[in-house]
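Pilot study result, target chain (340 residues):
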Amino acid sequence: MLFPTTIAGSLPKPEWLAEPNTLWAPWKSKGDELARAKRDATVLAVKLQEDADIDIVTEGEQARQHFVHGFLEKIEGIDFAHKVEMGIRNDRYKAMVPQVVAPLRLKARVHADEARTARTHTARKLKFTLPGPMTIIDTIADKYYGDRVNMAFAFAELLNEEAKALQDDGVDVIQFDEPAFNVYMSEVNDWGIKALERAAEGLTCATAVHICYGYGIKANTDWKQTLGNEWRQYEDFFPAIAASPIQQVAIECRNSKVPLELLGLLKGKIVQAGVIDVASDTVETAEDVVNVIDAVSKFVPKSNIVATTNCGMAPMRRDIAEAKLMALGAGAKLARQKLG
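Predicted structure:
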């Protein structure tokens, strides 16, 4: 089937689980009650995607307070009790983050519960997202390693351990989220892709990397205003990604200033093309989705295009996010009719 659909990863959380329209929102319950609430929200996220004709569903990241810190919570050597303020994405915005204070080791499985819940409740292909090594070290304070690269590779080993277990849980696509790639371009080629490859080493399921310009929050939209009329960050490292074993690349296309000819640098890769703008509350039409897919198809074989969202929808209003899901499914269906 041409133009299968997926989402970047996250969906808004129900208001009974966490404060709506907020990143890093605190949970509204704890203990066994919270565990049940997370499972219920995961099932709901899967159902919403199926109703919208999303072909490759995710668990919506419903069990994670944040896409990075949700992974860090099960790692020994991280101090969550004494968070410090740190600049994120080259000081684009600040957040209270935990600290690495000792050698890193997984205490136990990280995402088994939500992955198995999602797998139980859908027969569709299941994608699971993990933060990439470079993005993790840009979202946590280092009080132990004293070297960004060494710490990144330490996290890559733990990511690999969890990714292999997720594969055994029945996950079909494992996606590593690396928004930091668009910030530290020289480091991507120096060591970022190598760390990513270490995280994906030995996987036999499909592998992907998501490289976007961030959630639709003010800090990110303000930053985009400084990037000029053409966003060419991808140009610096797409050739290296094309040479890597990572099979899929998820990128931002809708309402974007990324020159689409840069996609031609991703020879042989599946391109998850963002056809839904998560930085706008305007709901796309099916024709809008078709138009973006058509534009992407000038540089990527149609058989290699997956239609997705530009980034996660965690901070969005639920009603808008759900409407955008429906537009994504309807638009891909229309694209198959018009462009197939």
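One observation from the pilot: The radius of gyration is 19 Å. A full batch analysis is planned for the follow-on phase.
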